[in-house]
């Protein structure tokens, strides 16, 4: 099912001819979505210059988790995993519509069906975009793009046999997370000598919470907007019926206004959709990215604690003159790990800021431009209708 | 039983009547006032010619309580004779029969030759002529709601200001203070006088126990303020609609309502008064009766109109419900936008890139302004669109009520005809009675009864024709008003939408350079 959609908008990425990844097609089946991942590359490690494979959501998650678990990548912000495709709400609505078919006129039913199908399509496009962004981020990252698993993901044209985590594994994950957050609190409590990181820690903590709040509030606002647009839809239908039934002069008014509302309602729905795309999605994305950045800081903090502990152990060993060599190597390993993470983390966090500012700028500008476009469109329709009606009285 | 009645405006009304008659105006009004004489179904007062005013004594048998489900307020007197075959009207004391003035008869005499219907038309035409000489120029404002008293006995007083250049009013500008029950009392009187003869009396705003209790208890919050404003606006629209009706405008109670500084309290409008309970009983009885009347509609116009109003009712109710939904969602949108604005401001605060931080704060400001815009639009949605629809849903119920009254009039006529037929049969059977001495007496009795019934049948037919004619006129007037109202409101509403979009454009245009300035 081919369709065109704008490229991932939430990140401002430098596209590089050596490796370009995109999702060229997607198919929605009963419970799953099948993405066609398309790669163009001049890199020597690929067999061809251009190829495609079909992947499902679980395979994306597998790839993401493999990054997270890889010690080598501890010093990088791991691009956040795309959220699970969720068509439940939309499917439920379509089902309810089917059940309520008897209680509405044929026109109303067709209209609502079209509405819901459009909604389904919009959610579909969004989930495709989010999966694509993930891949593009990986492809743009100087180190991650070279990852073996990534290449397998892109090239291996068989099923990766990555089964979703079973119950036991999910439980393990759950406990791991609990331990991690408890640990995270301890680690966060350790004051950092480095001003840069200390500042980043405070900043990210607050920022993450506020983005979460803004994201949920923007969702609510957009939902109300959609509800209002739906109401206008119903009003337009009833006005049309009134217009056809009425034998007096006012029937013309009803019909004209019904026509007007049909059009303005479409615009209102578009406004809500654009706000969703440019504002709500942006906030959601940076909610996930700021979490990934926090995770990075946590890993660094963990490494710092380990390093300090290794130092203490070394001192102790030297004092007792026992297992000194072992302690020394251990300390060196910790030191290297910590310094490696610190170095790359610093750059990652700076890049994060740059990306964030660029993404916000792009989206806020586009949001304002779209709001203006729609308001002007609305205004023109309204004014012309008023003109016609006034001329008639 | 019932609560105390308002003392009949006897002296005033009587005088007003005479005055009006002398002026040559309000001819019909005086006729109608006479109608109120609470005479039981006695023979016509001999001073009135039989084919005189159709609105003679027996007219009272009609049920004064209308079928308007929204309108629970018909009049009630202390006495209700529930045992008369046709239910007595429950009316306020009108002028007593003694006041049946000779003068109107004198006025009538020259018109004796005409049929009732034409006479009626003449009188209406006269009124309309008078109207055009004195064009409708009146503006009523209801304002300054003020709480009077404390606790559960407290009530809201409203200022009613009438500005007019019409000569029937004694002053160009009058201001009085009224409370809600006064409005209900007015409507109650008008309904009992005019509904059953086919006039579409605008319904009064609805009671609201919850709303009023909040106000009484003294909650000074937003929802009670909204409630009071909603009611004030509804009362204003109610009065304007009432006075736009050429007949109702000239009603003495309407004038008294607008002009006199003190108004007797309309206690019978309380839901739990004896009158209130009686109303409910009668309404139930009416509903049952309605189901059993099967009318042979000979006039296609009525059939058609009835159907049209049914359709209109259905659609308007649907539309009203949708618009109420819209108001609700827009209010919700306003609240959520405000909430988002605050959140965006917080986000801007924690953002450490200066330019982005500033832009986010600007976004928060824009959203705050937009939330106010949504609130204003919701207000317009409600007061312009939703309330108009609500008013018309209630008005159409009054229209349907008037159609029902016509059915009842027809039914009564038919019943009387049936009774006459039975009596005639009984008369012929008397021929074969076996008691010759009693025969003459019985024959005389029956002859008397038959004569009486023949008169009633004639009356019934005339009543039916009259109400049919009135309804035709009323419906045409109603439709004209409806078209006007809707056209005006629709344009106003669209203009409010235009304004909202213009403001939106202003706000986003101001924001765009800020967003672009992020470096």
List how many beta strands of chain A DSSP finds: 3
Helix count of chain B equals 13
> Which secondary-structure class do the elements of chain A indicate?
mainly alpha
The helicity of chain B comes to 55-70%
β-sheet strand percentage of chain A: 5-15%
Measured between the Cα atoms of the first and last residue of chain B, the distance is 83 Å
Protein chains sharing the most extensive interface: A-B, 57 and 56 residues
Q: How much of the polypeptide of chain B forms β-strand, as a percent range?
A: 5-15%
Instruction: Tell how many strands the DSSP assignment of chain B holds.
Output: 3
Question: What average pLDDT do the residues of chain A reach?
Answer: 87
Q: How many distinct helices of chain A?
A: 8
Helix share bin of chain A: over 70%
Low-confidence stretches of chain B: 1-133
Order of adjacent strands in the largest pleated sheet of chain A = 1-2-3
Uncertain runs of chain A are 1-9
Membrane topology (chain B): Peripheral membrane protein
Biased composition (Acidic residues) (chain B): 63-81
Coiled coil (chain B): 436-463
Family (chain B): Belongs to the sorting nexin family.
Question: Would you write up a description of this structure?
Answer:
The complex is a heterodimer of chains A (393) and B (519). In chain A, 72% of the residues lie in helices and 7% in strands. Chain A contains 8 helices and 3 strands. In chain A, helix 2 runs antiparallel to helix 3 and helix 6 runs antiparallel to helix 7. Chain A is elongated, with a radius of gyration of 27 Å. By secondary structure, chain B is mainly alpha-helical. Chain B contains 13 helices and 3 strands; from the N terminus they run ααααβββααααααααα. Chains A and B meet through helix 6, helix 7 and helix 8 of A and helix 11, helix 12 and helix 13 of B.
């Amino acid at each position: 099912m081919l369709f065109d959609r704008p490229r991932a908008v939430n990140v401002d990425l430098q596209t590089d001819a050596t490796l370009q990844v995109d999702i060229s097609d997607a198919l929605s089946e009963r419970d799953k979505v099948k993405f066609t991942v398309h790669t163009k590359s001049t890199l020597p490690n690929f067999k061809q210059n251009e190829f495609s494979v079909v992947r499902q959501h679980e395979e994306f998650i597998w790839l993401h988790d493999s990054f997270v678990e890889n010690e080598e990548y501890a010093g990088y912000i791991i691009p956040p995993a795309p959220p699970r495709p969720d068509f439940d709400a939309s499917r439920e609505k379509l089902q309810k519509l089917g059940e309520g078919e008897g209680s509405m006129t044929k026109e109303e039913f067709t209209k609502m069906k079209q509405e819901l199908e459009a909604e389904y399509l919009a959610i579909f496009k969004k989930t495709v975009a989010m999966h694509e962004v993930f891949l593009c981020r990986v492809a743009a990252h100087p180190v991650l793009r070279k990852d073996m698993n990534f290449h397998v993901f892109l090239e291996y044209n068989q099923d990766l046999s990555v089964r979703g985590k079973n119950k036991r594994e999910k439980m393990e994950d759950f406990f791991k997370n609990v331990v991690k957050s408890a640990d995270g609190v301890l680690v966060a409590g350790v004051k950092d000598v480095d001003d840069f990181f200390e500042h980043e820690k405070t900043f990210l903590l607050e920022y993450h919470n506020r983005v979460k709040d803004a994201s949920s509030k923007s969702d609510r606002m957009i939902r109300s907007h959609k509800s209002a647009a739906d109401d206008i839809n119903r009003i337009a239908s009833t006005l049309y019926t009134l217009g056809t039934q009425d034998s007096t002069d006012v029937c013309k008014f009803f019909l004209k206004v019904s026509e007007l509302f049909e059009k303005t309602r479409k615009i209102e729905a578009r406004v809500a959709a654009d706000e969703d795309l440019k504002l709500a999605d942006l906030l959601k994305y940076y909610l996930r990215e700021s979490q990934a950045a926090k995770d990075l800081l946590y890993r660094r903090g963990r490494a710092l604690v380990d390093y300090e502990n290794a130092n203490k152990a070394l001192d102790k060993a030297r004092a007792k003159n026992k297992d000194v060599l072992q302690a020394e190597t251990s300390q060196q390993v910790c030191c290297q790990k910590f310094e490696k993470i610190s170095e790359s983390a610093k750059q990652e966090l700076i890049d994060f800021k740059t990306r964030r500012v660029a993404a916000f700028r792009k989206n806020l500008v586009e949001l304002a431009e779209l709001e203006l476009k729609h308001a002007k469109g609305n205004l023109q329709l309204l004014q012309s209708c008023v003109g016609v009606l006034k001329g008639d009285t | 039983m019932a609560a105390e009645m308002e003392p009949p405006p006897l002296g005033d009304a009587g005088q007003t009547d005479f005055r009006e008659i002398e002026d040559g105006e309000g001819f019909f009004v005086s006729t109608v006032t006479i109608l109120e004489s609470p005479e039981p179904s006695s023979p016509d007062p001999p001073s009135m010619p039989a084919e005189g005013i159709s609105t003679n004594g027996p007219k009272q048998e009609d049920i004064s309580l209308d079928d308007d489900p929204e309108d629970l307020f018909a009049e009630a007197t202390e006495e209700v004779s529930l045992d008369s075959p046709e239910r007595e009207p429950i009316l306020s004391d009108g002028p007593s029969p003694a006041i049946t003035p000779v003068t109107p008869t004198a006025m009538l005499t020259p018109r004796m030759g005409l049929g009732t219907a034409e006479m009626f038309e003449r009188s209406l035409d006269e009124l309309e002529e008078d109207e055009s000489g004195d064009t409708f120029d009146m503006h009523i404002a209801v304002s300054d709601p003020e709480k009077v008293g404390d606790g559960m006995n407290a009530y809201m007083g409203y200022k009613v200001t009438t500005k007019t250049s019409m000569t029937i009013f004694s002053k160009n500008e009058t201001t009085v203070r009224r409370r809600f029950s006064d409005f209900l009392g007015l409507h109650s009187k008008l309904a009992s006088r005019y509904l059953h003869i086919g006039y579409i009396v605008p319904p009064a705003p609805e009671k609201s126990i919850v709303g009023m209790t909040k106000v009484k208890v003294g909650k000074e919050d937003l929802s009670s303020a909204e409630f009071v404003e909603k009611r004030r606006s509804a009362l204003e629209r109610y009065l304007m609609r009432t006075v736009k009706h050429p007949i109702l405008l000239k009603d003495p109670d309407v004038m008294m309502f607008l002009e006199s500084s003190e108004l007797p309290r309309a206690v019978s409008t309380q839901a739990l008064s004896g009158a209130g309970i009686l109303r409910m009983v009668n309404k139930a009885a009416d509903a049952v009766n309605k189901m059993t009347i099967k009318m042979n509609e000979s006039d296609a116009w009525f059939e058609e109109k009835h159907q049209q109003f049914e359709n209109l009712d259905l659609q308007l109710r649907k539309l009203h419900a949708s618009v109420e939904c819209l108001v609700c969602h827009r209010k919700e949108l306003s609240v959520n936008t405000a909430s988002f604005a605050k959140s965006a401001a917080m986000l801007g605060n924690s953002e450490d890139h200066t330019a982005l931080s500033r832009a986010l704060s600007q976004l928060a400001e824009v959203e705050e302004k937009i939330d106010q815009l949504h609130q204003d639009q919701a207000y317009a949605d409600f007061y312009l669109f939703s309330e108009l629809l609500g008013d018309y849903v209630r008005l159409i119920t009054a229209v349907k009520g008037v159609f029902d009254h016509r059915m009842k009039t027809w039914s009564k006529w038919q019943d009387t005809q049936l009774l006459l037929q039975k009596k005639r049969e009984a008369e012929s059977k008397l021929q074969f009675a076996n008691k010759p001495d009693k025969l003459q007496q019985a024959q005389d009795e029956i002859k008397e009864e038959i004569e009486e019934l023949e008169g009633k049948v004639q009356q019934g037919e005339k009543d039916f024709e009259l109400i049919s004619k009135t309804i035709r006129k009323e419906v045409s007037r109603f439709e004209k008003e409806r078209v006007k109202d809707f056209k005006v409101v629709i344009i106003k509403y669209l203009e409010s939408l235009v304004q909202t979009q213009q403001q939106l454009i202003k706000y986003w245009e101001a924001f765009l350079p800020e967003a672009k300035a992020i470096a």
